[in-house]
Amino acid sequence: MCLVANAESNTAFFGTVPEREVTFEITLADQRVMHGAIRLNGVFIHDLQSLPAGAWIEIVEDTPWTGGGVHKEFLNKIRVVRETRLKRRSRLEEGWESAGYVFIEMPEGGPTPIKATEVAYAERARTMEAKVVAELQGKDEGESALDTLPGQTTTPRKVQLFAWVRMWGLHALVVIVTLLLLGVAVKKTGVL
């Protein structure tokens, strides 16, 4: 179970290029620089020396915070420099952080990138929950926490029941009147 959770955490961090694959700094013909792994026929390549110079390769972009992408190019039209694992990890951390993510240590498998705004929302929710719990614990023992919402005074059960009957009674009345009118219309037209 721990291995699966750790693999999921790594998948979130590394994206479409698995951690064990070799990545490269790739300069395209138009001088754009990108980082990614190289595949040939769907298989990740670790040693470029074994490929023919004019091989038609796929470049799998190694930018998981953008979703990455796949570009196809001839091997002889690009310049490739192998990237170390440590350099890749630091580049990915910097990329995640510049995209607005923070790393949260998950109990089931290590640091996972999460949007900073989501972390702020979670902290706000925890604060709100603590406030509600504190208010509910401060009420009288004889009073049920389910009878009221925070900040409201208690409403007697009879008043609550009356409000419920009034709301649903109106719905039932509309349904009954509709069925009566439908019955009269069917009887007059003789459709059935």
Uncertain segments are 1-9
Distance between the termini: 64 Å
Taken as a percent bin, the fraction of beta residues is 15-25%
Which structural class do you get from the secondary structure elements? alpha+beta
Q: Tally the helices.
A: 4
Succession of helices and strands: HEEEEEEHEEHH
Characterize the biggest β-sheet. Answer: 6 strands, antiparallel
Over all CA atoms, what is the radius of gyration?
Answer: 31 Å
What is the 3D shape? Answer: elongated
Mean pLDDT score, rounded? 81
Number of strands: 8
Break the fold down into its secondary structure elements and pairings.
Elements: H1 2-14, E1 23-27, E2 33-40, E3 43-44, E4 56-61, E5 70-74, E6 79-83, H2 85-98, E7 101-106, E8 110-115, H3 116-137, H4 157-189
Antiparallel strand pairs: 1-2, 1-6, 2-3, 2-4, 4-5, 7-8
Which descriptors apply to this entry?
two-stranded antiparallel ribbon; disordered N terminus; 192 residues; 4 helices; elongated; 6-stranded antiparallel beta sheet; 8 strands; 22% strand; alpha+beta
Fold and architecture overview:
This protein has 192 residues and is of the alpha+beta class. The protein has helices spanning 2-14, 85-98, 116-137, 157-189; strands at 23-27, 33-40, 43-44, 56-61, 70-74, 79-83, 101-106, 110-115. Strands 1, 2, 3, 4, 5 and 6 form a 6-stranded antiparallel beta sheet that branches. Strands 7-8 form a two-stranded antiparallel sheet. A hairpin with an 8-residue loop joins strand 4 and strand 5. The longest helix is centred in the last third of the chain and has 33 residues, at 157-189. The radius of gyration is 31 Å and the shape is elongated.
